[in-house]
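Section 3.1: Structural characterization of target chains.
Under the original work plan, the team committed to producing a structural model for every single-chain target entering the pipeline before any wet-lab resources were allocated. The record below documents one such target. The sequence was received from the expression subgroup and is listed exactly as submitted; it comprises 331 residues.
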Amino acid sequence: MKTAPFGNSGIVTSRIVYGTWYLPHEDRQDERGLYPVDRKKAVAIIDRAFESGIRCFDTADVYRGVYYRASDKPGFENIGQSERILGEALKKLDREEYVIVTKVTGRTGPLENDAGHGRKHIRSAVSRSLERLQTDYIDFYLLHAPDPGTSLENAARSMNLLIEDGSILHYGVSNFRPDEVEEMFSVCRECGLEPPSVMQDVYNLINREFESSKLRIVEKHGMAAMIYSPLAQGVLAGRHSTGGGIPRSRYEKLFSEKVQSLASSPEIERVKRIGERRSVPMSQVALAWLLRKSERIFPIVGATEESQIAECSMSTEVELSDDEMKELEGK
C-alpha cells in the first residue's frame, strides 16, 4: 500500500481509504424487510483493511451501515451505527497508526438543533462521535453538506474552536459547490481562521464533473481530495450484488435502479479490456486511473467481503501508461 501526504495537513496516510457508509449485512430481514448489519463481519473487514495497509477510515454520524429509503422511515435508533462499529474495530490498535475521518450536518435526532452547522449542534455532534468512535480526537471532521441556515464564517469558527480544544485536528468540506469552497477560504483569510484541508466528493471514470470543477481548487489550496463512489457503486468493478449473493435490488430498489442505469456505460468495457490485458481485476484498473489523475486524490472504497478490500488495496501497485489512460477516457 502506497502512502502520501494528506494535503498540506502534515499527516501521511494510505492512498486508499476504507469507507463505512455501506457495510455487510446479515442474511435475515428485520420487521421492515431490511437486512441488519453483520457487525462481526464488518469488524473482520475493517481488520482486513488494516492488514492490507489501509490506514485511513471514513465514516459519518448519520451512517447506519445500510441503505434506507425515505419510505422506510428508519427513525434515529441506528444513527451512528457505522461509527460504533468502526470504533469497536479500531480500539485495539495504536491510535497513532490510523486516521479517522467523520462528518457532521445530517439530522441525528428529532430536535430543532439536531442538524446543520449551528455551533450547538456541532458541539453536541462531535462529543457523540468521539464517544461512538472510542477516541479522544478526530483527525479530520468534515461538514457533510452545505447548510443554508448557517454562515460559512460561523461554521469555520466552530471548526476552529474544535481544533483549539483538541476535539479535532483538521476539518474539511463535502459536497460543497466550487464557489462555496472558494468563499470559505476567503472568509478564513479575512478572519484569520484555519481553512479546510480536505474536500470530499464523488468522482469516477463515468462521472468526471469533479475533474473539471473542483480538482483545480484542491490543487490551488493544497487540499486532500477524498473521493467517494470511485467505482460507481461497484459498476466499474463488475459487481452488482452484495456479500452472500443477495442482490441489492431485493432491499434497495431505488438504489439498484440507479446503479443499473450506469451498467451500459462504455467506460465499463474499457476498464474490463485493460484489466484482462493486464490480468488484474477491473476495480484495480478503475482505482489506478483515479490515483494517476492527482497525487492529492484518496479514493474511498467500501466492501462487503474481505476479498474485495484486499483486491482494492492492491490498486496502488497498478501503474497505468499514458496510452492506457487515454484509452480509458475514450481518447
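The CA atoms of residues 6 and 82 lie 23 Å apart.
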